[in-house]
Every structure is written in structure tokens, then in C-alpha cells.
């Protein structure tokens, strides 16, 4: 796999919006396909991914970290904390659908959608 990272690149050239709790940090080209470079933190693990439109592909963190050493230092990613939330059956089904099977992601998507309406 050939990966090139550009921390000065404009991620908005490849995606209009970011997934909930993700941060656009530049652009990345993987095997000739350019896209937005996004980062989020899940627990204590930093996750990097390529975003093209609404398609997200997780990238190997070691490869990305090695490529980023050639660029400027980055700010800390957003942290995700674990909380228990009670949902009724209908809300649970909606969260599962919004999160493509991931309830936590669905709740984050729903919260972000509600915040954008205000």
C-alpha cells in the first residue's frame, strides 16, 4: 500500500461533513486515491481514516504516524468517554440504523443532527 499524507491539505475538498467526533487533519492519498485524512479517538486508541464523500476507510495507524512525522505536530484528538444511556426500543432501533449497527455511533450521529438543527 502506498500512502502519502499532506497535513496542509484541505480535507473539505473530499468531504462536506465529518463523521461525529472525527477531526479533519489534512489529506491522504492511498494507492493513488486521494481523500480527507480524519482522526478520532476510541478509548485510548487513536484511529486514522480516509474519507471520500461518505465512504470511510480505516488506515493503519503506524503507517499514518510515520508519514505525519514529515509534517507539523498535531493537536490532541477528541476523547470518547464511556457512559451508560437508557433507550426505549424505538430509540435503540434508530440508533442502530444511524450508526450502521453501532449503537454508540448512532447516538452520536443523532445528537450531532439535533445540535445542527438548532
Give a verbal description of the structure:
With 118 residues, the protein is an alpha+beta fold. The protein folds into 2 domains: 3-68, no CATH class; 83-118, no CATH class. It is 28% helix and 30% strand. The chain is built from 3 helices and 5 strands, in the order βββββααα. A 5-stranded antiparallel β-sheet has the order 1-2-3-4-5, with helices on one face. A hairpin with a 2-residue loop joins strand 4 and strand 5. Helix 2 packs across helix 3. It is elongated, with a radius of gyration of 16 Å.
Structure summarized in a few sentences:
With 118 residues, this protein is an alpha+beta fold. It has helices at residues 61-68, 89-98, 103-117; strands spanning 3-6, 23-30, 33-42, 45-52, 55-59. The chain has two domains: 3-68, no CATH class; 83-118, no CATH class.
Features:
28% helix, alpha+beta, 118 residues, single chain
Topology:
Layout: E1 3-6, E2 23-30, E3 33-42, E4 45-52, E5 55-59, H1 61-68, H2 89-98, H3 103-117
Antiparallel strand pairs: 1-2, 2-3, 3-4, 4-5
Helix pairs in contact: 2-3
Strand order of the largest sheet: 1-2-3-4-5
Number of domains: 2
Taking the alpha carbons of the first and last residues, their distance comes to 43 Å
Averaged pLDDT? 82
Number of strands: 5
Provide the succession of SSEs. EEEEEHHH
Based on Cα principal axes, name the global outline: elongated
- What profile does the largest beta sheet have? 5 strands, antiparallel
- Oligomerization: single chain
Amino acid at each position: 500500500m502506498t500512502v502519502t499524507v499532506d497535513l496542509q491539505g484541505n480535507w473539505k475538498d473530499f468531504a462536506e461533513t465529518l463523521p461525529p467526533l472525527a477531526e479533519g487533519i489534512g489529506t491522504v492519498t492511498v494507492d493513488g486515491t486521494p481523500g480527507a485524512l480524519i482522526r478520532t479517538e476510541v478509548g485510548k486508541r487513536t484511529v486514522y481514516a480516509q474519507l471520500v464523500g461518505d465512504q470511510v476507510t480505516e488506515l493503519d495507524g503506524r503507517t499514518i504516524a510515520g508519514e505525519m512525522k514529515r509534517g507539523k505536530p498535531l493537536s490532541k484528538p477528541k476523547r470518547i468517554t464511556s457512559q451508560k444511556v437508557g433507550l426505549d426500543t424505538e430509540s435503540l432501533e434508530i440508533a442502530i440504523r444511524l450508526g450502521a449497527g453501532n449503537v454508540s455511533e448512532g447516538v452520536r450521529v443523532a445528537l450531532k443532527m439535533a445540535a445542527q438543527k438548532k
